[in-house]
TrEMBL record:
It is found in: Mitochondrion. InterPro entries: NDUFAF7, NDUFAF7_sf, SAM-dependent_MTases_sf. Arginine methyltransferase involved in the assembly or stability of mitochondrial NADH:ubiquinone oxidoreductase complex (complex I). This is Protein arginine methyltransferase NDUFAF7.
């Protein structure tokens, strides 16, 4: 992380996968196209070829917390980071790791401030990485919450990687009393069956840098006015490479996501119809292809969570912007690989070859719409009947600096000259807080 841009890239160095391996392994059957989301899912999570599932080691873990107050300023901080990366031989440390324990402490403080402490505290973390967040939150509750809260709380990590699940148990187990409160469930969080029966009790769900690696779909239009089409990937005859195929919208998840985004809105005024007609003439002469990436993986995950945990409160944090994206389309991913210490950005998501990560910026405005749709509030708005619908969620979006200033201890991550990497360098990351609204009848 020699710069902020480098910090955002997270180029993969540990995993190995390739389209050739995917096609030859039977993940993509002969003469059977797959949706882009299935390609992305296989690339990241397939047990044999996935980026996260076949890592040779866990994500980066610092031996001790960084003592920011001993660093002179930004230059000293960057030099210190450079030494850390060389020492650990890893390309990425998560914010919760770089700023431990203060990053997780702020999350714990936000939970403690708003949770209903009359019932046992239950926290789910989706994709818990090395377990640093879980341990720090449990530490905070042990030190700051009423004893009853810590003694009765449950912290469940839902982790798809077995190697990371083992690492989480090791990390949390550094404090023996935490182990009776912590469990790891090695499964896919989007699978509704894995959650069992619906649990109406209050709970918290944490998703820290999870949304950026969730599968996305891609829709395409050859010009400015033609209908959107689904993008599928098929094997090219005689080759291991894939190519795109375009089909009319028919997949229910894609169609629902298109509806939520409003990119295919049919309701237009007469004036708009005239404008569209004019655009139609222009598009025939000067066609401009359109592409849009849809967070269908996020939609599926939130659908599952709202079905399983209807009274959940949600905290999600992720990048709202990624630099140097060359792949076309709204909300397009950054696909990067690293070789001999140099980062390579791919111009086509199908070009990833063995050491590439695929991650997306999070559209937090769209995330809020998806969250409300999955909770049922959006459906109530469309069919309110004789009564005004009751808003079922209360949401707020804050950049990392605002979140830390509200719930954290900003002085703890400040250097001697006042530079604060958590507040100054992570303003393009945001926090999304969503809690249920319970109105008295």
């Amino acid at each position: 992380m020699a710069s902020v841009s480098a910090a955002l890239r997270r180029a993969a160095t540990l995993a190995r996968w390739s389209p050739a391996a995917m096609f030859s392994s039977g993940i993509v059957p002969e003469n059977k196209p797959i949706l882009v989301r299935d390609f992305v899912r296989s690339a990241l999570y397939d047990p044999n070829h996935g980026y996260f599932s076949k890592r040779s080691g866990p994500v980066g873990v610092l031996d001790s917390s960084i003592r920011f107050h001993q660093l002179d300023g930004r230059s000293a901080y960057m030099q210190y980071l450079d030494k850390l990366y060389k020492k650990h031989d890893i390309a990425w440390f998560t914010p919760v790791e770089l700023f431990k324990p203060w990053y997780a402490y702020a999350i714990a403080a936000s939970i403690l401030r708003t949770a209903n402490l009359s019932v046992p505290l239950k926290i789910y973390e989706i994709g818990g990485g090395s377990g640093t967040c879980a341990k720090c939150i449990l530490d905070y509750m042990m030190l700051n919450a009423p004893p009853k809260v810590y003694n009765t709380m449950k912290y469940i990590s839902v982790e798809i990687s077995s190697s990371l699940a083992e690492k989480q148990l090791e990390t949390v187990g550094e404090v023996r009393s935490h182990l009776s409160k912590f469990t790891v469930e090695c499964r896919d969080a989007t699978d509704r069956a894995g959650w069992g029966r619906k649990d109406p009790r209050p709970s918290w769900v944490l998703m820290l840098e999870v949304l950026d690696n969730l599968p996305h779909d891609l829709v395409y239009s050859p010009d400015q006015v033609s209908p959107w089409m689904e993008v599928w990937i098929e094997k090219v005859n005689g080759s291991s490479q894939g190519s795109e195929v375009y089909k009319p919208l028919q997949d229910p998840l894609i169609s629902r996501c298109v509806e939520i985004t409003g990119i295919n809105e049919e309701k237009v005024s007469v004036r708009d119809k005239l404008s569209l007609a004019a655009k139609g003439v222009v598009s025939k002469v000067f066609p401009k292809p359109r592409r849009a990436w849809l967070p269908t993986g996020c939609l599926k995950l939130l659908d599952t969570l709202h079905q399983a945990l209807p009274s959940m409160s949600l905290i999600a944090s992720d990048f709202s912007y990624l630099p140097d994206v060359s792949i076309p389309g709204d909300r397009a991913p950054l696909v990067s690989s690293k070789k001999d210490g140099k980062t390579l950005d791919h111009r086509n998501y199908l070009e990833a070859q063995g050491d590439a990560d695929i991650f997306f910026p999070t559209d937090f405005w769209l995330l809020e719409k998806i969250d409300h749709d999955c909770s049922g509030f959006s459906k109530q708005q469309k069919n309110p009947g004789a009564f005004k619908p009751v808003k079922t969620r209360r949401t707020i979006i804050l950049d990392s600096a605002a979140f830390m200033e509200e719930f954290g201890l900003p002085l703890k991550t400040r250097t001697k000259d006042g530079y604060n990497p958590l507040l100054d360098d992570f303003r393009n990351t945001k926090f999304y807080l969503s809690v249920p609204t319970h109105n008295k009848k």
